Amino acid sequence: MTAATASSSERVAPARVYKLHTRPAWRRILLTREAAIIALLILVIVVASATVRNFDSPLTVTYLLRSVAPILLIALPMTLIIITEEIDLSVASIVGLTSVMTGILTNAGWPFAFAALTAILVGVVCGAVNGFLVTVVGLPSLAVTIGTLALFRGIAVGLLGTTAITDFPEFWTDLAKANIPGTPIPVIMIPFVVLAIIFAVLLHFTPFGRTLYAIGLNKEAAQFSGIDVGRTKFILFVLSGAVSGFAGVYFTLLYSNARGDNAMGMELQIIAAVLLGGVSIFGGRGALHGVIAGVLLIGTLGSALRLAGVTSDIINVITGVLLIASVVSASLLGWLQKRRTAAIGKRKGRAGASTDAT
Question: How many domains does the chain have?
Answer without folding.
Answer: 1
